[in-house]
Amino acid sequence: MLDDEFERRNKEFPNCWKPFGNGMRACIGRAFAWQEALLVLALLLQNLNFSMDDPSYQLQIKQSLTIKPKDFYMRATLRSGITATGLKKSLASTTANRPDSAKTAHDANVTLKVSNGKADKGKPMAIYYGSNTGTCEALANRLASDAAQHGFTAEVVDTLDTVRENLPTDKPVIIVTPSYEGAPADNAAHFVSWLDTLKEQEMENVSYAVFGCGHRDWAQTYQKIPKYINATLGERGATKLADMGSADAADGDIFTAFETWEDQILWPALRAKYGSAQATGEGSLETNLDVEISAPRSSTLRQDVYEACVQDVQVLSTTEASEKRHIEISLPSSMSYSAGDYLAVLPLNPKGNIQRAMRYFGLTWDSMLTISTTGPTTLPTDVPVSANDVFGAYVELAQPASKRNVQALVDTTRDESDKKELIRLADEAFSSEITAKRVSILDLLERFPSTKLPLGVFLKMLPPMRVRQYSISSSPLWNPSHVTLTYSVVNEVALSGQGRHVGVASNYLASLTTGDRLHVSVRQSHKAFHLPKDSEKIPIIMIAAGTGLAPFRGFIQERAAQVAAGRNLAPAILFYGCRTSATDLMYGDLLKRWEDMGAVSIRFAFSRQPEESHGCKYVQDRIYHDRADVTKLFEAGAKLFVCGSRNVGNGVQETLIRIAKEKHMEKEGVEADDAKTRAWFEELRNERFATDVFE
Question: Measuring CA to CA, which residue among 260, 503, 255, 215 is closest to residue 400?
Fold first, then answer.
């Protein structure tokens, strides 16, 4: 519509533009409304950056008089060099003078300050995170909570996308972010894209430090995003305050790695630069959480998730195998999903663990806690909340203790034998006896009754409750408003020897019955882990063991619906491993029906009955047994999907590499170079080879 283009098109095609109110009774104020809308839009774009509030939003059409996207919200953030107070002044004046850049960062962040109504003391710092599952968000909040002990006040704890083009320049900036198979978290994607656009020394006034989370199984992309942010900020002129910290999720102790980086690298560097002395008189056991106890009980909760309802529950396994279950959930009307997506569930702690905590602190069933704090916290503050709710829904009671937690307990006991043992556990035995055995703070308190830990300190030690993601095992072509989950219930003897290790989310789901309410949200999986759009031409090979079948049940259900509608699909093979056909083969009749329809070809591997699966014990054995079919479909352009434990993922990868090397030998007559073959295989990842590997 710029320049004369609109008029030219309108004359050439008179009916191409039919605005609302067109015709003999057209609104005489329409042109004024257009001009007003143009001015407002220009004003918004001059001063604000816009991004999707939900990066995984799927388009839904809402139609009344006009067509518009349903429940589509944008997040607005001030553009670089603009402050809230400066914008207000410029809008109220006749000239749009921008405030000087020296005041920019401070003014822009004043409205985001977290203080719970109390005066904060200390040097300001800003903390930003990227997080899909809540781990990095928990680390960011942990850092903010620790800041006061070191003479700092965390003024901002927010997502990276909210600070795109507006990084503060008058305070240290700490960034905590993960890397998901080489991609940023959903709420950090726009920030990373913005960094890509920087060419010169735009960040020269920014002082920063970065901590990254990753998983070493993704060797090619391990810590890719944190490393990129750390390097790019430095290249664009920012001052690095401390060496980048990192945590490997494969080690199972992210919090200890983070605390070690905090204590040994970050805080010493900040004190050296800003001259802030570590707080004295308040050791690791003193806390800014004060707790009052009262009664009776009431309930509050929930954020970032929406209420859903349980429609059906089933047990899929016999008592001879580990318990596997199926649950059907009706989604809120505004929520939609695609086959292969995740359902994030906000669970409650198991009742047994809640009762243990209540018992240790001498709380009755109707005790109420009123929590007040001088710093940021994810706990409800200044309102009475049931102790049962606090222990059940706000904190992770089963989180393995960090090294700092164990060291803190040393100071709470006067029993010399207990003190000596705790020192040993915090030192040379930490990895083998705390992390490896998943020993929680609550476990340690019960094991060492001489320790006397205040309730406020205990709550501060615990990370906030986070959502758990489960692969959706249904297709929207079956029911667009219902999802199903297929999961294993974790309930086994604790490695610590203290009772049982009970999975928080799986046991929470297992406790639900038809009609129960829960809180969920749909999370989009990696774009590579979805069915190909051209299902008629692109074959697929699905490989799973145990509950790794979940996303592929959704894939096959979608293909079955397409076949029933008359579509002629490319071939699909499912390699599926379980113990026996009688104890834990899930959805056997349903899979057989879909196979008879032509939606899939199923190849089983029974670890306890290999004679019933061509002598193949595991899925990788069956893949090698049927390698001719695998090779044929791969050469026809097939996409490969793997879902299961890390052992399954590694076993499948080695088998596929073996098949590729044998094929090379068959074609070329020479042995394939192992390093080159593995490099070639890595290039396929997230293009033709997609994995969803879990612990």
Answer: 255
265 and 299 within one domain: no
Count how many residues are written for the chain: 695
User: Looking at 59-73, 174-188, 579-593, which range is the least confident one?
Assistant: 59-73
379: CATH: 1.20.990.10
Q: Is 436 domain-assigned? A: yes
Q: What angle do CA 694, 392, 403 make, to 5 degrees?
A: 60
Q: pLDDT tens digits, residue range 563-593?
A: 999 999 999 999 999 999 999 899 999 999 9
**Position 315 in a domain:** yes
Residue 96, in any domain of the structure: no
Stated pTM of the model: 0.73
Alpha helices per DSSP H over 78-223: 84-92, 104-110, 135-147, 189-197
Domain count for the chain: 4
Q: How many helices (H) and strands (E) does the chain have?
A: 23, 26
User: Would the pLDDT of 188 be above 80?
Assistant: yes
Q: Enumerate residues 6+ apart whose C-beta is below 8 A from 22.
A: none
Range of the domain at 625: 540-694
Are 135 and 237 in the same domain? yes
Nearest Cα neighbor of 125 from 164, 101, 157 is 157
Q: Which residues pair with 126 in a beta bridge?
A: 156, 173
Element (H, E) at 257: helix 254-261
User: Coil, helix or strand for 680?
Assistant: helix
Most confident of 59-68, 212-221, 369-378, 475-484: 475-484
Helices (H), 385-519: 387-389, 403-410, 416-426, 430, 441-447, 455-461, 504-510
Domain co-membership, 121 together with 270: yes
Distances from the Cα of 460 to the Cα of 94, 144, 396, angstroms: 50, 12, 11
Residue reference for tokens 């107070």:
85
CA distance 179 to 229: 11
Q: Are residues 457 and 596 in the same domain?
A: no
Q: pLDDT at position 472, please?
A: 97
- Same domain for 20 and 165, yes or no, is no
The predicted pLDDT at position 695 comes to 56
In this structure, are 425 and 327 located in the same domain?
yes
- Give dist(CA 566, CA 545) in Å, integer: 30
Cα angle at 449 between 446 and 455, to 5 degrees? 75
For 631, the token pair is 């090779």
* Domain membership flag for residue 192: yes
Q: 423 and 337, same structural domain? A: yes
Among 212-216, 232-236, 471-475, whose mean pLDDT is lowest? Answer: 212-216
For residue range 117-153, what is the model confidence (pLDDT) as tens digits? 344 467 889 999 998 877 888 889 889 888 888 888 8
